[in-house]
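Why do we bother with holo predictions? Because pocket geometry can differ from the apo form. Keep that in mind while you read this record for iron/sulfur cluster.
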Amino acid sequence: MPSEITSLQEQIQAFKQQKRAIILAHNYQRDEVQDIADFVGDSLELSRIAATKECEIIVFCGVHFMAESASILSPGKKVLLPEENALCPMADMIRVDAPRPVINSFPGFDTPPSYVYPPEFSLRDIKRKYPGVPVVAYVNTTADIKAESDICCTSANVVKVVESLPGEQVICIPDKNLSMWVERNTNKKVIAWDGFCHVHERVTPDDIRKARAEHPDAVVMAHPECRIEVLEMVDHVTSTSGMLRFATSSNAKEFIVGTEIGLMHRMRNENPDKIFYPLRKDMICPNMKKTTLQSIIRAFREESHLVKVPEHIRVPAKRALDRMLEIK
Ligand code: 13P
Ligand code: SF4
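The structure, written out:
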């Protein structure tokens, strides 16, 4: 690499060209990571790009399940996750054929959930209990869970996915909040799992009341991973990129953003005349923040950490992802 290249950003650009790579970043990534990415988006947008974009290497700045989905969709590309331990705790809340782990603490989660997760069920137990009922797996799941499911969904398309399925019932895993929200917005009976996102689960109705009192003219948006009693109180429920589009197209000037605070970087850049307030300042996903410019450089230098799914899991998991991507 030429010696005059000094800044981290310049090193990344040089590696990108040399290795025919693209950098994908989720909307929750650190500001400086979003700024060097080729594409920044929500889970659905990033999986569409991973499936179609020509390149040799995808550096996925997000969490493990996202890189795994990219590898499932594009097995011919090298998919690198700069931080090996950037995991989504929700994705670990359901296992194919084993009890789930007992959940009792998360980094940055001050108020532990008041309920206990009975660890005795597996996905196969639920499928046995409801034979023939289609399983919809949120993309925030591991590859082996996707492989056992009929179709995937993201927060951007969950209503369309559920409505596309035959019958009156669906099993939705693993996020109980997303499941309750989709039941409210479709005519289906949803059999839900009791997983959750610790970043969104912490939001309470009091937070909404407080935010509205502080900013009475602001429009309140929230991600469907928030609790149903919170979603009932807000003005707009949608995915991360859905919030961005809404903020851009709306005539309102002020917005309360009910999701991980990383999304506000794009919102502010793309809407300099509008004001964005976090619903809670502590809506920070510690796993999304693990990736730094330094870890991206290391990922390029060492071509690590390679995310690759074994073929016997990849093929059925791809079927579930492809079915989702076919839905317009
Ligand atoms: P989106 O699909 O809305 O980007 O959300 C992903 C996620 O991890 C939310 O916590
Ligand atoms: Fe997982 Fe929540 Fe982090 Fe999204 S914000 S990656 S659901 S822990």
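The pocket of iron/sulfur cluster (ligand 2) is lined by residues 63, 88-90, 140, 197-199, 225, 260, 285, 287-288 (CB under 6 Å).
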